[in-house]
Design brief:
The complex is a heterodimer of chains A (289) and B (158). Chain A has 289 residues and is of the alpha+beta class. Helices cover 34% and strands 23% of the residues of chain A. Chain A folds into three domains: 44 residues, Uridine Diphospho-n-acetylenolpyruvylglucosamine Reductase, domain 2 (2-Layer Sandwich), CATH 3.30.43; 111 residues, Uridine Diphospho-n-acetylenolpyruvylglucosamine Reductase, domain 3, CATH 3.30.465.10; 109 residues, CO dehydrogenase flavoprotein, C-terminal domain (Enolase-like, domain 1, 2-Layer Sandwich). The chains are: A alpha+beta (289), B alpha+beta (158).
Chain lengths: 289, 158
């Protein structure tokens, strides 16, 4: 599968990794956890660049928020006490659903996003956290919104750069807020048919102060449900509003039919999971169910 | 063909092997005679090729061998000590959790990693630890019972 590989490089820094990538002239591939790359295969790959020893494995406070290095494994996200206390623990909760433990010990958060899969489970919780992606290029580092990064990754636009860090700003605080991550797969270790992350905050009168909803595996890249969010802000949170928002979200997506599910089923389940996520958020925020 | 040197520890013994840069850990381990590491799906779905790397289970079909540089690998061959089976291995035999045996090595290694961290796991934790291991013979009841018995935690759980 990787029979043509002539060199396996283990750069100790990002600049070194970028130099190797440039020198590889399109025949070099970045390796982190390898769980997607190995399955995809690489008959034309000549150089493998392992970035797991390039100093990108960390989760730390970076006020006003957190910084997560791109080669941090999904298992490490799951076990991080810092993340368990952050935004209702939705990042560990999502990472715990990404395949088996053996795969989560290898797979990295950066790889999950850089692979460009619409079903990446880490994309939706990071989208509702308004995360930014830090992308290293030969002569500069760029910060882009995660939404823009994901769209680019789906279109294979980041070939000459390396995703090095995710910046996750502190979410809006207050006692009356809640977070949720919901996923539908065939089995406990399956890829998402649909996944939904949500967060919301209520004002003292039980009206929606802010809300963020993201859906995965139902459009070319994971996306925020902007129209559904807009419908909710300023209105009293009750089950009718949740149903209305869930319906709106299911109209915003562009699901496809594939071997796992039909577009129609994905659309229906998007509404179900969005409602479930919002109900859980509401329960945590102390709003009516 | 280009080769490179891979230095690692397997079942407590330091090794230095010549590998191809694109080799997968599964292929290298089997080439070196560790046949307890089974070749199953080769896509990270079945867990038959699982080994412990620095104490953590990984599917060796998804890891480039070169990534194991400097790491400590444990395969199922390394579990018995001085010809005596480890308690988990005994428990799998006692509970009828072994039939064809193809999935057994990976299952026991994942169970070992769990018990090393959580000596008295709940049934749910055991089920999660074994979730990445497909078995086509015994199913999943007996292996779970075996792990709980090895942990001595079954009664406590009830």
């Amino acid at each position: 599968m990787f029979d043509q590989v002539e060199a396996f490089c283990r750069p100790a820094s990002v600049p070194e990794a970028l130099r190797l990538l440039q020198r590889g002239k399109g025949q070099a591939r970045i390796v982190a956890g390898g769980t997607d790359l190995v399955v995809a295969g690489g008959d034309s790959v000549r150089v493998l660049i392992d970035i797991t020893r390039a100093g990108l494995n960390y989760i730390r406070r970076k006020p006003p928020g957190l910084a997560i290095g791109s080669t941090t494994t999904l298992a490490e996200l799951e076990e991080s006490s810092l993340l368990q206390k952050f935004a209702g623990g939705i990042l560990p909760r999502a990472s715990a659903t990404c395949g088996s433990i053996a795969n989560r010990n290898l797979a990295t958060v950066g790889g999950n996003l850089a692979n460009g899969s619409p079903a990446a489970d880490m994309a939706t919780p990071l989208l509702v956290l308004d995360a930014q992606a830090v992308v290293a290029e030969p002569r500069r580092r760029r910060k882009v919104s995660l939404a823009a990064y994901l769209t680019g990754a789906a279109a294979n636009q980041w070939q000459k750069s390396i995703l090095v860090e995710l910046i996750v700003p502190d979410p809006p605080g207050g006692r009356h807020c809640g977070w949720s991550f919901q996923k539908l797969g065939r089995t406990a270790v399956d890829i998402s048919l649909v996944n939904v992350a949500a967060g919301l905050g209520l004002d003292s009168k039980g009206r929606v102060k802010w809300v963020r909803i993201a859906l995965g595996a139902v459009s070319p890249a994971a996306m925020r449900a902007a129209a559904a969010e807009e419908r909710m802000v300023g209105r009293a949170l009750d089950s009718a509003l949740i149903d209305e928002a869930a319906e709106e979200a299911s109209r915003e997506i562009q699901p496809i039919s594939d071997v796992r599910a039909s577009a129609d089923y994905r659309r229906q389940m998007s509404a179900v999971l969005t409602a479930r996520a919002l109900k859980e958020c509401a329960a945590q925020a102390g709003g009516s169910k | 063909m280009k080769t490179m040197l891979l230095c690692l520890t397997v079942n407590g013994k330091p090794q230095a092997w010549s590998i191809a840069p694109g080799d997968l850990l599964l292929d290298v381990l089997r080439r070196e005679g560790y046949f307890g590491v089974k070749r199953g799906c080769e896509t990270g779905e079945c867990g038959a090729c699982a080994v412990l790397v620095d104490g953590k289970p990984i599917n060796s079909c998804l890891m480039f061998a070169a990534q194991a540089e400097g790491r400590e690998i444990l395969t199922i061959e390394g579990l018995a000590q001085d010809g005596r089976l480890a308690p988990l291995q005994e428990a799998f035999l006692d509970h009828g959790a072994v039939q064809c045996g193809f999935c057994t090595g990976g299952m026991i290694l994942s169970a070992k990693a769990l018990l090393d961290r959580h000596p008295h796991p709940t049934e749910e934790q055991v089920r999660e630890a074994l979730a990445g291991h497909l078995c086509r013979c015994t199913g999943y009841k007996k292996p779970v019972e075996a792990v709980l018995a090895a942990a001595g935690g079954k009664e406590a759980e009830r």
